[in-house]
Design brief:
The chain is 78% helix and 1% strand. It is mostly helical. It has a two-stranded antiparallel ribbon with strand order 1-2.
Length: 449
């Protein structure tokens, strides 16, 4: 009887324990199911695009963890003058070699069409191991930190190039490329926004802890990369880009693909240069001269949130527009960015800085999505992935140039905003006429060997 009574009593206890366990797991399992449902909607799950969306979210979360660790070491932990020297050293040791390596990344990865999953996994694993390496130097800011940071930068950009080349292979039926890129980009932005405060919290434990977090995230990304569908590694129907001009000679550029792609790439280069410039220039300007009534950290956070919000809005608008008249969209957002930069120079102040950050983020996102639409429309499918690889590499180089200008410029707000306007105006000067002409004459007819 005692045994029966004990069994009867343990039944409700066991059921209650299971109920409590389910209740505790519900926020996590419910969130995971919700994320999976969103990333796999509209056929993205069946095509494999959902896996890439999730992988890009992991990529964004890991990158922001490393950014938090580097910012706290190179920028926030020392006086402004010393910080400027450290950032200049960071640019010299990491960005300068990257400028030389960047032209090689696209063509090199383009020669590995059968190893794209391995390439993405390798980029994740490389950053995981380098994060551990950096954790030992991040507290002291030793010189060994900079070669590791260069490796992280190269691996991150290599992943970006491969990801751009992979997206066209994972499109669901009747799913525009611009919408697919919008989903992928938005997932990365949301993951970055969620991971940034976590990274800041880990930094309160110790300067190396965000790097430990990055290690865990990138290890997860390494395994996730191999869950991509096998067709990612298939090169069936593809050829490397071999462009020919009017004379029939092969040319190692994107110029002869068509005016929409070439001029759209020039306009996007101006947006990327503006982004790199604002990132470095405003970081030092607001540290030395914070927004009225705010600390330097809060001032930087306001501008960063403004730029992130603008980027997210631009990505959402790009998906809604469905690649209608991409040339006109690029011209419109380029004009919008130029107007905002001019107004920021004329009416320089905290509000205009935040407005410029928002407009720059919005314009860059929408312009890039429109460029993707032009590539999808004008570049033949068999060479489209190659074109994406090369265009992404050129845009990353533009960001490096803008950042170098930002670090070298004196900390004068009006001068800085004038230079920002000049960067956008240069892009407009070289691209607007060609984009408007392409829009009037319709889609170009590329000649591809």
């Amino acid at each position: 009887m005692a045994a029966v009574r004990s069994s009867d009593e343990s039944g409700p206890v066991r059921r209650a324990g299971r109920s409590v366990g389910r209740a505790l797991r519900l926020p996590f399992t419910g969130t995971a199911k919700g994320i999976r449902k969103a990333t796999h909607a509209h056929g993205a799950g069946e095509s494999g695009l959902g896996r890439l969306i999730e992988l890009h979210a992991v990529n964004g979360a890991g990158d922001v963890m490393i950014t938090v660790a580097l910012a706290s070491t190179v920028f926030f932990s020392v006086p402004t003058d010393e910080a400027r020297g450290r950032v200049a050293l960071y640019l010299a040791v990491t960005m300068a070699p990257f400028t030389l390596l960047a032209p090689v990344i696209g063509p090199l990865l383009d020669r590995l069409p059968h190893g794209r999953r391995a390439a993405m996994a390798g980029a994740m694993l490389t950053r995981a191991l380098l994060a551990l390496t950096m954790s030992g130097a991040v507290a002291t800011g030793g010189l060994e930190l900079y070669p590791a940071a260069l490796g992280v930068l190269v691996a991150s950009k290599a992943y970006g190039v491969v990801r751009s080349a992979v997206v066209p292979r994972l499109l669901p039926p009747k799913f525009p490329l611009v919408r697919a890129n919008s989903r992928v980009t938005l997932a990365g932005l949301l993951a970055t926004g969620a991971a940034a405060p976590i990274g800041a919290g880990l930094h309160q434990i110790g300067p190396q802890w965000p790097l430990y977090g990055a290690f865990v995230i990138f290890i997860a990304g390494t395994f996730l990369a191999f869950t991509m569908p096998p067709k990612v590694d298939s090169a069936k129907g593809e050829r490397r880009v071999r462009l020919v001009g009017r004379s029939g000679k092969k040319r190692p550029s994107l110029r002869s693909i068509g005016p929409s792609v070439f001029n759209g790439l020039q306009a996007n280069a101006a947006h990327r240069a503006l982004s790199g410039f604002l990132t470095f220039f405003l970081a030092f300007l607001l540290r030395e001269h914070p927004l009225a009534g705010q600390s330097a950290a809060v001032s930087l956070a306001i501008v960063g949130v403004s730029a992130g919000a603008g980027n997210a809005i631009g990505t959402a608008v790009g998906a809604w527009l469905k690649a209608r008249a991409p040339e006109l969209i690029i011209v419109t957002v380029l004009t919008l960015a130029l107007t905002a930069a001019i107004l920021a120079a004329v009416f320089f102040g905290g509000l205009m800085i935040a407005v410029l950050g928002t407009v720059a983020g919005f314009s860059q996102a929408l312009s890039k999505l429109s460029l993707d639409a032009c590539i999808q429309r004008d570049v033949p499918e068999e060479v489209r992935t190659s074109a994406f690889a090369r265009s992404e590499t050129l845009l990353q180089m533009s960001w490096v140039v803008g950042g170098a200008i930002g670090i070298a410029l004196p900390l004068n707000g009006v001068l800085g905003m004038s230079v920002a306007a000049g960067l956008v105006a240069t892009g407009a000067l070289f691209s607007v006429r060609g984009l408007l002409g392409a829009a009037r004459h319709g889609a170009s007819h590329p000649r591809v060997a």
